[in-house]
């Protein structure tokens, strides 16, 4: 009985901590999207870079990288930086294939 309670408490603590970490990641993404929608593209790019650095803890293959690369391409296009646009789209496609498979 006591062992089960410790397991439940440990699980709850783990969930609260992981929710807080993910909340930090989504905060950067939300601020980046809000700045982009307000027309402040350089600020949106800064928040997006913070978001990507928070993703590095998840490893090179994770399900959040395709969304990052698509947003990066959108911001670069809005800033008029066309040289990296195609590379960002290709990175998004490759990250999606790596994370989700060829058929998704």
Describe this structure in words.
The protein has 104 residues and is mainly α. The chain is built from four helices and no strands. α1 (2-37) packs antiparallel against α2 (41-55). It is globular and about 35 Å long.
Could you give the topology of this structure?
Elements: H1 2-37, H2 41-55, H3 65-79, H4 85-100
Brief summary:
The chain is mainly alpha-helical. The protein has 4 helices and no strands.
**What is the rounded Rg?**
18 Å
Measured by DSSP, the beta-strand proportion falls in under 5%
> Which parts are unreliable, with pLDDT below 50 for 5 consecutive residues or more?
10-22
- The total count of strands amounts to 0
Oligomerization state: single chain
Biggest sheet record = none
Structural class: mainly alpha
Overall pLDDT score: 79
Question: Helix count, per DSSP?
Answer: 4
The helix content, as a percent range, equals: over 70%
What is the terminal-to-terminal distance?
45 Å
SSE order, as H and E? HHHH
Tell the overall outline. Answer: globular
């Amino acid at each position: 009985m006591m062992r089960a309670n410790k397991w439940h408490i440990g699980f709850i603590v783990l969930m609260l901590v992981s929710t807080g970490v993910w909340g930090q990641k989504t905060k950067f993404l939300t601020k980046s999207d809000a700045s982009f929608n307000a027309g402040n593209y350089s600020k949106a790019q800064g928040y997006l870079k913070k978001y990507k650095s928070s993703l590095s803890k998840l490893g090179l293959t994770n399900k959040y990288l395709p969304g990052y690369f698509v947003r990066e391409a959108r911001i670069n296009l809005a800033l008029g930086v066309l040289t990296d646009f195609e590379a960002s789209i290709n990175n998004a496609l490759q990250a999606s294939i790596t994370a989700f498979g060829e058929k998704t």
